[in-house]
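User: Okay, second chain of the day. Same drill as before: sequence in, structure tokens out.
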Amino acid sequence: MRRKASLVLLAFAVFFAALSPLLRWYAFPRLAKIPANQYQDMVLEAKNVTLLDYGTMKARKVPEVTIVQTLKGNVEAAKKIEKTAGRDVVVWDGLSYVQGPDGKMVSRIPERYIFDAHSQAPVHATGEMVDGDPVKRTGIEFKWPFLTQKRDYEYFDAQTRTTNPIHYEGTRNFRGLKVYYFEQTIPWTKVKFPRTMPVQGITPESVAKTGTTRWYTTVRKFWVEPVTGAPVYGEEIHKEELRGGTLLGGRDKVTAFAGHVKMREDFIRHTVALVKSNRTLVLLMTSYLPWGFLTLGVLLLALSLWLEARSRRTGDPEPAESTTQEPVTA
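Assistant: Same drill. Structure tokens below.
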């Protein structure tokens, strides 16, 4: 009976030992993905901002500017692209909406980002754009890959429509989470005017005729939870200038925007709580279950061997041969 039990335990030991690497290296890369219908929004704010008044074409100080960023999963568009791409795809329709302290629009930039649901690598398809301009992204945007590494990544900048390195600058603790800190600097670069301008009657085409150009620089900072690849906090030291042309009335340049943009406190708390929950799910597939199954397999193997050894020691002894001699008769 013990021998049968040991064989059953041995079979389970082999099963769980084999399941451990399969779950980590086969199942996880295929099951861990961004949902196609995911929706998220984030509110950032900048205090004591320098902002251009397009009515007077003069820079002025304002107490606060609010930036609302939304990312909405477009399921129908993702399904169409998946038919030709041959892989799971996510399509995010994004909008960055900036408003001044009076609630009026400062800028409005729509964006469509198409990427692989598992690796977050860009997928090039019709509709990929920034503010109506077709783009072909390289590098990541908005989110890092699952199991982010301690290295530099290529990160897409929507203002310049270019990809630049974003540098890993060390490991930090952010509100109880171990995070990787990344930083990217975009030097002063000439960029396009938004298609939607803050003053009615002013268009990018009409501004271009004056010879005035728009320039931009930023220092972008992200605190990324490495298991999920999700940023839990972000900041930008953002500056924009208008340069040259007749629109400035003889001035060389004027500040259009200058401020330190940070996530709002209530969205920080919400993001940290959400990432902690998702982190547990990812760890189940990458650490907890694989190591648990491997440990269970080793324990079952040890128990199987113990039962087998015990069954051999306690088996019925072989009957001994009789050494009694027959009596001899005279």
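The radius of gyration is 32 Å.

User: Thanks, on to the next one.
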